[in-house]
Amino acid sequence: MNRSELHNALVAAGWSEDALKLGEMTGFRCEYCGKDFFHSVDDYYSFEVEHIIPRGKTEEKLENLTAVCSTCNFLKRRWDPRDVAGDTATREELISAAQRHIKEQRRQKEEKVARERNLVKLYLAAID
Questions:
Q1: Considering only CA atoms, which of 90, 44, 98, 41 is closest in space to residue 74?
Q2: Cα angle value 87/82/106 (rounded, 5°)
Q3: DSSP class of residue 66?
Q4: Strands 47-51 and 65-69
Q5: SS3 of 79-97
Q6: What is the per-residue pLDDT across 72-118, written as a single tens digit (0 to 9) for each?
């Protein structure tokens, strides 16, 4: 199959033009954490289109969109990377700022999950 036929096959499989462009731009990996969307069914279904600068705070352009996993999208939420990178930051600088923010959010959530995991173990042991 040539590139055009492959493109058409992916569109026929349900990929929107924008999602396909973003997937191509990011190598079909989360631009924030690097998760490979074709590694597993769970990873495939975690693919989301995300606004680098939150929706409503800038023009709607493809350059403001990226492919991310649902976890990174949740951890970033409506955080604006311009708060750290500045109003004149490049797309790469905005992505880098978002990656740092998400890394810190992930660290905090991992601590929370570890605390709650221990509480749940104690809770389940107390039921018996």
A1: 98
A2: 165
A3: E
A4: antiparallel
A5: CCCHHHHCCCCCHHHHHHH
A6: 999 999 999 999 999 999 999 999 999 999 999 999 999 999 999 99
Gap between the Cα atoms of 16 and 21, Å rounded: 9
- Alpha-carbon torsion, ordered 106, 107, 110, 112, to 10 deg: -110
d(CA 76, CA 20): 22
User: How many residues are given for the chain?
Assistant: 128
Residue 51's DSSP bridge partners are 65
Residue with tokens 């074709």: 38
Packing angle, helices 3-12 and 17-26, rounded to 10: 120
pTM value is: 0.88
What local confidence, expressed as pLDDT, does residue 3 receive? 92
Using DSSP, state whether 128 is helix, strand or coil.
Answer: coil
What is the pLDDT, as a whole number, of residue 98?
A: 98
Q: Name the residue with tokens 């929706």.
A: 55
Give the tokens for residue 111. 């601590």
Percent of the chain's residues with pLDDT above 70: 100
